[in-house]
Design goal:
There is one protein chain. The protein is mostly helical. The chain folds into 2 domains: 16-209, Preprotein translocase SecY subunit (Orthogonal Bundle), CATH 1.10.3370; 214-392, SecY subunit domain (Preprotein translocase SecY subunit, Orthogonal Bundle). Helix content is 75%, strand content 4%. The chain contains 18 helices and 4 strands. The protein has helices spanning 2-15, 17-36, 46-57, 61-69, 73-76, 85-100, 102-108, 111-142, 152-179, 184-210, 215-237, 274-283, 285-293, 296-303, 310-331, 334-343, 355-390, 398-444; strands spanning 239-246, 249-250, 256-257, 260-267. The strands form 2 sheets. Strands 1-4 form a two-stranded antiparallel sheet. A two-stranded antiparallel sheet has the order 2-3. Helix 9 (152-179) crosses helix 10 (184-210). It starts with a helix and ends with a helix. The relative contact order is 0.10. It is found in: Cell membrane; Membrane.
């Protein structure tokens, strides 16, 4: 039965020309992106750089997280080593500026203002890519035998190559968003993460075949992964519904609008994956300071926050909870929601419109955000716990899992919207044909 439904769904996608063209265009863009992510930048010994990543980061830390989002391009020093991350960082900066600067907030609500902000985001992306390219060039020069001809020429060439690659990836993501299916930036990160899954899975099976990992541990890991994926899906789509009533109103020309009941879905995980990223960015600061300073005292302090230590778990949990509330307050404005509801004549039963509605919605958001923050904390720390208890080398990161599930659900929702729109258009066309046929018949009499 499930196979029949899947085959029928695929046939419906193929029979929808516009949707099929969007899917083909998206896959072609992703193919170009993944091909460029394997072209090495000139002047770098890839093996030396890869060995450093494996020995120092072990796939964790800020560098390991960045490398995961770009599909391993950073550890291989490819032309797309920066990936879409400069554009993502620039978009986050502009989004945070909208919550702090009133002028930017006003521009976000206007069509022309949004166009100007998009242009500013592109300029900021170029600046961030140049700075990150310069930092990556200095970083590779500091590694032994990683650069054949170090110096200012290598730094400038590396900045040019990486900045150009980041601009092309940004353009590729925008093309997917405009002409393809789904959000381009999210899909680029999605496929980068998916590509990194397979080497980890194969490595885990190799450890089992050699006897380093017990087969029972692999079975337990598979069960845990299925349970975690189910939990991520449930929390991603979970929402607290706030009932809203819109009373009957008299419209233009004496027409009446019927009273309706609706609801506002307040998601449990409004902040998405950003709290984990912010927390990981902060917690690697002591290790980065110790690495660059070379101070023994700094290294002792940084050792307290190594992954797996008690202080690491405590600080990581606190940071995730704090950043969950912080980022939720930035991207969700209950005052604007209450004002828009008041303009439409709607109200929450038992709550006065305006300021009281905003306070009520804010209280509900604060309550539903707490279980979301606890869930994010568990997802972020579970891989480390599993790796230590079972001694399994393959770690399915909570950050990557949240991104993969979220992007997959959003993309599937867009596919369903296209299919429903196609059915609706077909229904309307049939209705118009029948109506014209009746008119022609009536005219004959």
């Amino acid at each position: 039965m499930a196979e029949t439904n899947t085959a029928a769904a695929l046939q419906n996608v193929y029979k929808t020309p516009e949707l099929w063209q969007k899917i083909v265009f998206t896959f072609l863009c992703l193919l170009i992106y993944r091909a460029g992510a394997h072209v090495t930048a000139p002047g770098i010994d890839v093996q030396a750089l890869t060995d450093y990543f494996q020995s120092q980061t072990g796939g964790g830390g800020l560098l390991g997280l960045y490398d995961l989002f770009v599909g391993g391009g950073l550890s291989r020093a490819t032309v797309f080593a920066l990936g879409i991350m400069p554009y993502i960082s620039a978009s986050i900066f502009v989004q945070i500026a909208g919550a702090v600067v009133p002028t930017v907030d006003k521009m976000q609500k206007d069509e022309e203002g949004r166009k100007k902000l998009n242009q500013w985001t592109r300029y900021l992306t170029v600046a961030l890519a140049a700075v990150q390219g310069y930092g990556f060039a200095l970083f590779t020069q500091s590694l032994p035998n990683a650069v054949a001809n170090p110096g200012m020429g290598f730094i400038l060439s590396m900045m040019l190559v990486l900045t150009t690659g980041a601009i092309f990836v940004m353009w590729l993501g925008e093309q997917i968003t405009e002409r393809g299916l789904g959000n381009g930036a999210s899909l680029l990160i999605f496929f980068s993460i998916i590509e990194r899954f397979w080497p980890g899975i194969l490595q885990t099976f190799n450890f089992v075949s050699t006897g380093a990992v017990a087969p029972l541990a692999l079975v337990v890991l598979a069960i845990v992964m299925v349970a975690v994926v189910a939990g991520v899906v449930a929390i991603t789509v979970a929402a607290r519904r706030v009932m809203v009533q819109i009373p009957q109103r008299t419209m233009a020309r004496g027409r009446m609008r019927e009273a309706t009941k609706n609801f506002i879905p307040l998601r449990i995980n409004t902040a998405g994956v950003m709290p984990i990223i912010f927390a990981q960015s902060v917690i690697v600061v002591p290790g980065a300071i110790a690495q660059f300073s070379g101070s023994p005292r700094a290294r002792e302090i940084a050792a307290y926050f190594d992954p797996g230590t008690v202080w690491y778990f405590i600080l990581m949990a606190i940071l995730i909870v704090v950043f969950t509330y912080f980022y939720t307050s930035i991207i969700f404005n209950p005052v604007d929601l209450a004002e828009n509801l008041k303009k439409q004549g709607g109200f929450v039963p038992g709550v006065k419109p305006g300021a009281k509605t905003a306070e009520y919605i804010e209280q509900v958001v604060e309550r539903v955000t707490f279980p979301g923050a606890i869930f994010l904390t568990a997802i972020a720390l579970l891989p480390i716990v599993i790796a230590k208890i079972m001694n399994v080398p393959f770690q399915f990161g909570g950050t990557s899992l949240l991104i993969v599930v979220g992007v997959a659900l959003d993309t599937m929702a867009q596919v369903q919207q296209h299919l429903l729109l196609r059915k609706y258009d077909g229904f309307m066309k049939k209705g118009r044909v029948r109506f014209r046929g009746r008119q022609a018949t009536s005219g004959g009499f």
